[in-house]
Amino acid sequence: MRGSAALAKSSTDPRIAAGVIALAAIGILIGGAFAGLGIEAVRNPQGAAAAFDSYLFRIARFTLWQALLSTLLSVVPAIFVARSLSRHPAFPGRSLILRLFAVPLALPAIVAALGILSLYGRAGYFAEPLAALTGGTWPGIYGLSGILVAHVFFNLPLATRLILEALQTVPTDQWRLASQLGMGARSSFRLIEWPAIQAALPGIAGLVFMLCITSFTIVLTLGGGPAATTLEVAIYQALRFDFDPARAVALTLLQIALTAIVVLVLMRLGANTTGDANLPVAQRSYIRAKAGERTLNVAAILIALAFVGGPMLATVASGLEADLGRLAGEASVQRATLTSIVLATLSATLAAMLALSLVMARRALAGSRVAGDKTLLERFTDTGAGFVLVVPPIVIGAGWFVLVRQSVDVFALAPIMVVTVNAVMAMPFAVRAVRPAYDTASERHERLCAQLGISGWNRLRLIDWPVLKRPLATAFAFAMALSLGDLGVIALFGSDAVQTLPYLLLARMGSYRTDDAAGLALMLGLLCLALTMLADRLGRETSK
Amino acid sequence: MLRTPGASNSLSTPMKEAPMRTILLSLTSALALAAAVFPASAEGKLTVYTYESFTSEWGPGPQVKKAFEADCACTVDFVSVADGVALLNRVKLEGAATKADIVLGLDTNLTAEAKATGLFVPHAAGADVKVPGDWKDDTFVPYDYGYFAVVYDTEKLKNPPKSLKELVEGNPEEKIAIQDPRTSTPGLGLLLWVKSVYGDKAPEAWAKLKDRVLTVTPGWSEAYGLFTKGEAPMVLSYTTSPAYHMVAENTERYQAASFEEGHYLQIEVAGITTTGAKNPLAEKFMAFMTSPGFQDAVPETNWMLPAGKTDKPLNPAFDKLVKPAKTLIFSADEVAANRKAWVDEWLGVMSK
């Protein structure tokens, strides 16, 4: 299907149109913010140059270093955990583990930090054994180690689920073949699993890297002092405390540039696999792990579960000390829960739509490409759009505030800002979840659709939808978890209209009510779990 | 058809304008109807910009609104942003078009910058206000104040430091959680505190204190959370913090350490904007702010000390709090002029 006919068709392919619309929407959101700050920055441009001092280079170096280490420590173990989970589809509690793995994303950073410290802190459960082990008092994990532990806590589960999503695109026929050929664990990893992982890995690693490079509360709280700080902190300071848009814009651009370099390197490490164009005929999984391998797999799953579940259990334990009955009965808590559910559902829906549009457009563009380099449009639908993650939400919020403050009632805009910014920030996660399945399905169905002349809405409904339901549910769950967390977009807008659960949690923490805050963290985690289960169920039920 | 005389002269084809007029007319009557249905908004509205913890359900906002609305026959509309700094940024960005009549919740470290915007007008209120150091200003009126203090856990720390010097030079194994002066008001407070005691020797003091610092958090909440979690036996907070634990949790476990050199003062103030100068309710609110109707709410909702007279005596817990022998404070202009240099100096020492 490579050729002029395909090229001619591509110009009218509605999938590309959808992608262009999605890109335009994202472009407007980010561009508008930069325009708003740009107008202010032009009035007082000195700040931009003043930002580049020796301290800045120190923190830029630390930012990169911690993000690289965090990515490595999150993604490499995730490969083994995901593979273990993929080889044991009947592992007891497997689906619960996968759902739990979405929860860290929904927790405000300080809740996660306190959960981690309840285990590894100076007063944590492990402080005494660790002190006995090291001799002397346990100093806690403040410093780079604390930052890394927290980042792995957030990102190992994320990477595991996304890698698993990629592994699930391996056709069952390949497993049958492997089984017939008597392939062992090692050769089936090398020949079957690794190619699927390798195709998805750069994208996943890039995503984790972006999350770590923009880390803020974790780095400050667990970092131990201003030597461990990130560019994001400097951007926050420039906007919130000094209101110096020129410096904020300059630092944001630096952050994007640094990320771009790393992501480009990651892309080179990746590979474009051709995929399997045959329709799968085998119905069930043919994986038979031997006893030795099984032990290792179970160990990998249990260690990951203990690592991720430990701080969560600690959060639950301190949450149970709160007066949950009273909290649940409070009108403000009920209102905030409802607000959170509505906003997160809207953002997640929008995020899934954006992601699907981009994934479809990328695939259509890649399919119609005659030869040679990717076009700019294809690059943007691929990795480019993911860069929204390194634009700090506070930059988007402040930029739009500056832009619209004179013409629009900023209060009415606050909920819209929350929904759109959360959706755009969640979009890259959704893309990673949906893309492997869509690309695989497209590889199988593209010619069939061309022959039968199925396109547009009919194709989405009849051909793509059945295979996309499950990954879309994963995408939706992640997007919702992320949107449940508070991003601080509307610091300047005024938050009276959008009092969500994390907002309420941080507010209670800020007024001595730490028990209430712990209780709300538990409720937030449970809400996230419930929403994730719901998303999973929707994905499964309709796939029959 | 209704037409105003002025309009008829300027319009060559008045009939073309008719539909537009009908729309305008019906809009006007709809507005009039709305005004009749919601009488409060017709009698006057006062817009107060403030920070979030002021308007939260356990903050002073709800009580203050009720008390003021009871005898002003008006509506108080609170608009709350994240904190004092966001408050100033928001007003700066809105400029003269701001909807705020009153901005409530700046502290004395921000007043110089706020004044420089030219968006605030002098007031007539505040005669009945009494804050330490006799802080007075023609534009901003204090409504409460507090002293920064090192709060410690009596179960973990038997010999709390008795001076800033003892804090700086004490056992580095006994940690303190502090806040970042770049992102937090108490963080800036400690920086100014050390500066006011050590002057040019502040960098040396920080270099020693650094070993005692467990971590530097972005805001007060994170540091206080680490403290109550037991991670650090000390935290930088306020002299009034123990009052919360005594009143709400009935425990004397957490106490503030009294420092010989004195304690650094934070005063929270409000001012009338150029928009508010046109609203008679603004002056009325400022007078109300320093009266018992407002001040009674301050101690046990904002956990600060009232700047004006209260009707009822303060909870006895407040009598047990540390009363600093000496008040330390830089003028607003000094802070505005030196903040950046001092923060850079701090950063230079702390990031080594």
Automatic annotation (TrEMBL), chain A:
<keyword id="KW-1133">Transmembrane helix</keyword>
<feature type="transmembrane region" description="Helical">
    <location>
        <begin position="380"/>
        <end position="404"/>
    </location>
</feature>
<comment type="similarity">
    <text>Belongs to the binding-protein-dependent transport system permease family.</text>
</comment>
<keyword id="KW-0677">Repeat</keyword>
<dbReference type="GO" id="GO:0015888">
    <property type="term" value="P:thiamine transport"/>
</dbReference>
<feature type="transmembrane region" description="Helical">
    <location>
        <begin position="410"/>
        <end position="431"/>
    </location>
</feature>
<dbReference type="GO" id="GO:0022857">
    <property type="term" value="F:transmembrane transporter activity"/>
</dbReference>
<feature type="transmembrane region" description="Helical">
    <location>
        <begin position="97"/>
        <end position="120"/>
    </location>
</feature>
<feature type="transmembrane region" description="Helical">
    <location>
        <begin position="337"/>
        <end position="359"/>
    </location>
</feature>
<feature type="transmembrane region" description="Helical">
    <location>
        <begin position="472"/>
        <end position="497"/>
    </location>
</feature>
<feature type="transmembrane region" description="Helical">
    <location>
        <begin position="517"/>
        <end position="535"/>
    </location>
</feature>
<feature type="transmembrane region" description="Helical">
    <location>
        <begin position="62"/>
        <end position="85"/>
    </location>
</feature>
<comment type="subunit">
    <text>The complex is composed of two ATP-binding proteins (ThiQ), two transmembrane proteins (ThiP) and a solute-binding protein (ThiB).</text>
</comment>
<dbReference type="Pfam" id="PF00528">
    <property type="entry name" value="BPD_transp_1"/>
</dbReference>
<dbReference type="InterPro" id="IPR005947">
    <property type="entry name" value="ThiP_ABC_transpt"/>
</dbReference>
<dbReference type="InterPro" id="IPR000515">
    <property type="entry name" value="MetI-like"/>
</dbReference>
<protein>
    <recommendedName>
        <fullName>Thiamine transport system permease protein ThiP</fullName>
    </recommendedName>
</protein>
<keyword id="KW-1003">Cell membrane</keyword>
<feature type="domain" description="ABC transmembrane type-1">
    <location>
        <begin position="337"/>
        <end position="535"/>
    </location>
</feature>
<feature type="transmembrane region" description="Helical">
    <location>
        <begin position="296"/>
        <end position="317"/>
    </location>
</feature>
<feature type="transmembrane region" description="Helical">
    <location>
        <begin position="199"/>
        <end position="228"/>
    </location>
</feature>
<keyword id="KW-0813">Transport</keyword>
<feature type="transmembrane region" description="Helical">
    <location>
        <begin position="20"/>
        <end position="42"/>
    </location>
</feature>
<keyword id="KW-0472">Membrane</keyword>
<keyword id="KW-0812">Transmembrane</keyword>
<keyword id="KW-0997">Cell inner membrane</keyword>
<dbReference type="InterPro" id="IPR035906">
    <property type="entry name" value="MetI-like_sf"/>
</dbReference>
<dbReference type="GO" id="GO:0005886">
    <property type="term" value="C:plasma membrane"/>
</dbReference>
<feature type="transmembrane region" description="Helical">
    <location>
        <begin position="248"/>
        <end position="267"/>
    </location>
</feature>
<feature type="domain" description="ABC transmembrane type-1">
    <location>
        <begin position="60"/>
        <end position="266"/>
    </location>
</feature>
<feature type="transmembrane region" description="Helical">
    <location>
        <begin position="140"/>
        <end position="158"/>
    </location>
</feature>
